[in-house]
Amino acid sequence: MKMARVVLALAVAPLTGTLGAFEARAQTAAPARNVVLVHGAWADGSSWAEVIPLLQAAGLKVTAVQNPLTSLADSDAATRRALALQDGPTVLVAHSWGGTVISDVGIDPKVTALVYVAARAPDAGEDFLALSGKFPTGPVRAGIQENDGFTKISEESFLKYFANGVERKKAEVLYAVQEPTAASLLGGRTTAAAWHTKPSWYAVSKLDQTINPDLERFLAKRMNATTVELDAGHLSLVSHPKEVADLILAAAGRRN
Fold first, then answer.
1. Would the CA dihedral through 110, 113, 117, 123 be positive or negative?
2. pLDDT (tens digit, 9 = 90+) per residue, 70-116?
């Protein structure tokens, strides 16, 4: 059963200045001392580099998974290994395609909350490609290039659409370290949907040109997540690290 929702009130008021406009609901957050971060497609763990120091400064133990992006099963296994090493209550966080992973493995009893950052959030067994097809396709799609069963995003498309809103030099570094992603990865289906039973938070990127912002809003509403909207492109974890960190802190039962 989902944890009780409470009306957003003075308890979260200190966050509204940095997080933007929450929906008129908030969830109770169990105290957690660990955070596990899962990156998305065409990225690696370094995509969390701007967020990690902010979480560490708040006293949280942080682990960034190096997601193999070869298959959903492989990515799930990498995240489960990271969860196994945590010493107690843990907030599980994902960006982009990584939301598929945390939806699948977030049923782990150590996980107290889920945080989705411009992320997928499929239901169990759901055809997410069919769901996303009901919304306009982002322009980044045209820049996806396949070679030998793996995909990368062209430099032009990566810098202009995938990393829109990110300072140019940072975007160029992220382009250089993008992890090749199995062409079959995006069609993988989960066997669970942890957001049905775990309290969830969602950061919508209003300027996203990779995942449609209205799809993000649909997913956040479907899971009854505490939601914030950021004036950011797809890589809000890079362009708006404080706002993303503050959302994670809220899910961990912390106030900074």
1. positive
2. 999 999 999 999 999 999 999 999 999 999 999 999 999 999 999 99
